[in-house]
Design a protein that fits this description.
With 280 residues, the chain is an alpha/beta fold. Helix content is 33%, strand content 22%. It is globular, with a radius of gyration of 22 Å. It binds adenosine-5'-triphosphate. It is found in: Cell membrane.
Length: 280
């Protein structure tokens, strides 16, 4: 164990308390510089810079097609950027992929799972892929299944899981190896309010321990109630990033700040859709 006097500030021989040595600053959970991705003519991500601090609950928000999924896919090593540099927990994602992948958990959009395994088997398999000893993987799997209210369905095949159950087993797989940074693409989509509350509790506990959650969402109320740090994306660019208070600024809510930042007026349907509704 480290010498207490070395690690926690000390009292000198005259009994005067000395300031503790500065704690070593953690590298940002994610640092992105000049990141670009284009699909044919479509620029999905247009040279973004992003610095997401460690130990925060971070929301990446933006309208449909803003480039959130493309960004998260590149940050998690699933999609190769055209240009730019990405570090996760101080390691280059594309030069040091094994190091990065051991430190992250990912719940991607359009989650693909091993459908012919039961939930319990999926976690056992994930544990082996992650190099966990069998008994430890079992212990963690039992606790995760229990907390996420999947214990009753643990022997059911994943193909027979509902959308919300799939999100929860995907989350359990992403958490099993206790990653430093967890990336979640729309984790609450298709999840009922009770399960959403459970997932929330698990994620809040996880960030309280110093880990980082980065999640994308369209639901501003959710981001406002969960996140302490926000990045706003629109048309492939970062429009704002900072603490929730900084991004909200003078606006009454994050939703108002968001509409202002992305320059989106609510579309007036005018004379259009005049056929919709009314008696036939
Ligand atoms: N594989 C692809 N091939 C072609 N275009 C793509 C591809 N993936 C994304 N795009 C385009 O890139 C842009 C950004 O898409 P992306 O899925 O990253 O946005 P998003 O912010 O996640 O949107 P949403 O909130 O609707 O999921 C969109 O214009 C989309 O059509």
């Amino acid at each position: 164990m480290a010498d207490q006097a070395d690690s926690a500030g000390a009292t000198d021989t005259a009994g005067v308390a000395q300031a503790p040595p500065p704690t070593q600053a953690l590298p940002p959970a994610v640092r992105v510089e000049g990141l670009w991705k284009r699909f044919g003519e479509q620029v999905a991500v247009a040279g973004i810079d992003l610095e997401l601090p460690a130990g925060r609950f971070i929301g990446l928000v933006g309208p449909n097609g803003a480039g959130k999924t493309t960004t998260l896919s590149m940050v998690t090593g699933l999609l190769r950027p055209d240009m730019g540099r990405i570090e996760v927990a101080g390691h280059d994602v594309w030069r040091d992929p094994v190091e990065v992948k051991s430190r992250i958990g990912v719940l991607p959009e359009g989650l693909r799972l091993f459908e012919r395994l039961s939930g319990r088997e999926l976690l056992g398999y994930t544990g082996r892929l992650r190099g966990l000893p069998g008994a430890e993987a079992d212990r963690r799997a039992t606790q995760l299944l229990d907390v996420l209210d999947l214990a009753g369905a643990q022997h059911k095949l994943v193909v027979d899981y509902s959308t919300g159950m799939r999100k929860k087993i995907g989350l359990a797989s992403a958490l099993l190896h206790n990653p430093e940074v967890l990336f979640l693409d729309e984790p609450f989509e298709g999840v009922d309010p009770v399960s959403a509350q459970t997932i929330r509790g698990v994620l809040e506990r996880y960030t309280r321990s110093g880990a980082t959650v980065v999640f994308s969402s369209h639901v501003m109320e959710l981001v406002e109630s969960l996140c302490d740090w926000v990045a706003v994306m629109a048309a492939g660019r970062i429009r704002a990033q900072g603490t929730l208070a900084e991004v909200r600024g003078e606006a009454a809510s994050l939703q108002d700040a968001f509409l202002e930042l992305v320059g989106a007026g609510v579309r007036d349907t005018g004379e259009s859709l005049d056929w919709l509704g009314g008696a036939r």
